[in-house]
Amino acid sequence: MLVEMRIQSTLSVSLSLQDFPFDTQAVKLEVESPNHPYEEMQFVPKREPDLIAIMKPLTEWDTVGAETQLTTNYYSIFHETYSRLDYIIHIRRKPQFYMDKVVVGIVMLVIMTWLLFCLPTEDSNRQTAAATTFLAVVGYISVATADAPKVPYTTRLGKFINLSTAQILVSFVVFSIDAIINRTANAAEEDAIAGAKSDRQAKIRELRHKQKTLAPTLVVPMDHDLEDTNPSTTKGRNDENNCVDAMLKDGLDEDIEVEGWWDTWRMVRYKIDLVIVFLMVLSYGIACPLILRHT
Prior knowledge:
The protein has seven helices and three strands, in the order βαββαααααα. By secondary structure, it is α+β, with helices and mostly antiparallel strands.
């Protein structure tokens, strides 16, 4: 005897969401009679296309296929075998919403963070802008992923978000280290200049003392002194005085320049930033397609 039965129900199923939002699921519906063993009842499925036709359309999913399987299930406690009909529906999530609302927005914020490397390293706005961008990403993620599934493992969308957040965090750390080194270099240079100024002032005091020592004493000459005066001696003293005056003037007017490790840092810091941002762009450009690829 052939009995045709129509079953209508709303069911829930556990999904594996490691690939969310690019996941493909195989939803399995098992139909089995609890009262009639295999000798009394065997299920016979209808044609497979009917299964997809009777399904209600899913707004977030595309139905990519369906299949039926006839199996048996043996219960040792009853020593009976029962007929089972398995409906397997293959569905694929539509990821466009998450691509438009989450991925694109976060990528733009990451690119904005990369552009901060174009600012001078001594510009404190880099650090402030990176911190602001980080907070903006956190707030943006909280709003954009409010409807994302809450699961105890990391999905592909979660990996992308973590990677993007790490990019912004690394930028903030680099800017903070640059700011610390810049302050240290400026302080070291100021200390060196202060020491050089102190040494110069000591030399100037020494030169002034020497100038006073070399200054000619005003004496009323006698007749025999006029006869014995040596013009070359007086000229030599005047030359020395003029030389000391020139040294004093140069010492007061000339800017002090000192050399140290801070000069090397200022020459290489732009190259270091360039290498860092290149590695960040390269790693992000390689990792993102691997994470966001469609399977």
